[in-house]
Structures are given as structure tokens and as C-alpha cells.
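Dear colleagues,

As part of the handover before I leave the project, I'm documenting each prediction I ran so the next person doesn't have to rerun anything. This entry is a single chain, and its sequence is reproduced below.
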Amino acid sequence: MRNVISVELKRDCDAVQIPAGHAVRLPAGTAVDITQTLGGAYTVQANGGLFRIVGKDADALGLQDEEAESDGALQTEAVSPEQLEKMVWDTLKTCYDPEIPVNIVDLGLIYDMRLDSQPDGGQKVCVKMTLTAPGCGMGTVLAGDAQQKLLFLPGVEAADVEIVWDPPWHQSMITAEGRRILGLE
């Protein structure tokens, strides 16, 4: 059971409509129910619909941005390709579908990840991912969230997150951990 927190927006706030993916602006004073807080983003219900609010706008909900508070802990020293690969996978596990409380790795949405060495010694992260449904308008939002988070990793100069449709996603791609969270086991 999820804990739903009801709040009133403290200021106008940018949001993304779920599942359409349209950018909207929710006005100050709007009553919202926070239904999910995962990966530094908030899923809220307001005016009969669902919306995603990013962590930098947590103050509009009367909350603090947890990711901004931890920015000082970013690692700045060089890391090995093996360490960076683990960091990439760990980072991808902080990206969540706003309707499902499981990260995109455990949902089985990541089809491929590779690191490409760049001429100046940095790395480019290349990710191929899919969505649970081709008509989901949140694809660019999820891919953008992953890309932004990957760019904060030490030694990462570029990140490319591409949405692909082959093979089509199926529930059998959910990991054992994802199945446990969803109660499918």
C-alpha cells in the first residue's frame, strides 16, 4: 500500500501529464495527492489526472530536493571502466516509470548499455531502452531523466539514451526483484 500525502502547491509548478507526456503548468494553490516519490521525481494526482514533478520543484510541494542535497557527494576522481559500468547501472536503477513503483532496469526496459571511450579519455554512455507500451507519451521524459542522471557520473562526457521497439517488451522481462516489488511471484 502506498502512502498518499495531500498538499497544496506553494507556487506555480511545471509538470508532465501522465501518460501523454505533455508539459503543463500547475498553478499555486492546486490541491495534489503525492502518490509516488521515487528516483528524485514525484507522481501527483490533481484535477482528475496524474502528473510527474521533478525533484528541483520539490519546494512547490513543500518538500526538499533530495538529489540537490546529495550533489556535494558526487565523486570527482577518475574511475575504472568497470567501476563506471556499475555506476551506470546503479544510476539507471534510480529512474522510475511514474505509474509503476519499479525502476527501469528491474522493469526490463534496458536492452543494451555500453561505454564508448572518447579521444580525450572520457566516456560516452550509450543506452537502448524500450517502454511497456508503444503509445506511452512518457518515453522521452524517461529517456531524458536517464540521460541527465548519467551525465553527472565522473568521466561521462556524453550520454545517448535511445528508445527502441525490438524486441517488444513483455512482462517476462521484469527481473526477480521487479516481480517481488509488484507482487507477481
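The CA atoms of residues 102 and 181 lie 7 Å apart. Confidence is low (pLDDT under 50) at residues 69-74.

All the best with the project,
I.
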